[in-house]
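Troubleshooting log. The previous run stalled partway through. Resubmitting the same two chains, unchanged.
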Amino acid sequence: MKSFYYESSEYAPRVDFNNLTGVFELEGISRPENVSAFYIDLIGWLKEYEQGWCKTGRAAETGIVLNIKLTYCNSASSKYILQAIEIIVSWKNYGILPRINWYYDESDEKMKEDGQDLSDALDYGFNFISLT
Amino acid sequence: MELEPLTIIEYSGAIRYDTIGELIHQFKQNIHLHGVQTGTYKKILLVMIESLENIMKYGDYTVNDDEMPGFDPSFSIVKDKNQYTIASRNIVEKDSIATLESRLNHLNTLNQQGIKEFYKETITNGKFSHLGGAGLGLIEMAKISGKKIEYTFHPVNEKYAAFSLRIRVEESNN
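Second attempt completed without errors. Output:
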């Protein structure tokens, strides 16, 4: 399988999910015109990755790190981002302990709070990293 | 000296995806002229996006609707002292008022912790509507504002009503 890469645009985030390194990044603004089409592709890729890399033990060798560096996102995107994180977190069943890094600007309390809400909703600890 | 309320944005017309982008640009330009803290700026921006996306998904009946000609959605952001009011008005079908009103009333009974719980419950279990909304927009706006949502419905004819929504965001210290 190929890595999943999507170059950012004005209202869509940069997505760089690398299957070879296990480093997944989501960065920028998330308000794409068609939110469901945008994230359904990504979620499809994660399911494929699970089959090829998690179930076979290859992902346990690389480890999984998800870096989320969002400037802002609309509520429909949040729902899909939560679904994507939920899939990644479920891979702990394959002996992988995914590390979720949630980056935020110190002056932006809202973005940190959004990460805490998603972390609480999933009952899974995120690492909160200040960008400033 | 009392300062007059200051209009940051005032718009009336159809709301499409590109319109929202243009209004975001306009907002960014105008708000920085008046100086605003990053935290407050972000809150207003997010309420603005949710509000406009709600109109785009549910309330834009301006196009080719003979039953409701000439009623454009409207949107404004006004600063008064240390408070910003994000107001929107659009047409909704009367049939949808009961559901909408019950959701708004429910949100208005909740405190901040209750809204957070409701948000978590909806984001983990809520279903997407056929228009792509996740049912989170109003909750997100209530969560950001921390104040009661003000709204009214005014009948405009047999089938439609004008739905006005006002969300307030206090200027914060960061």
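Takeaways: Chain A touches chain B through 25 residues (CB under 8 Å). Chain A has a mean pLDDT of 95.
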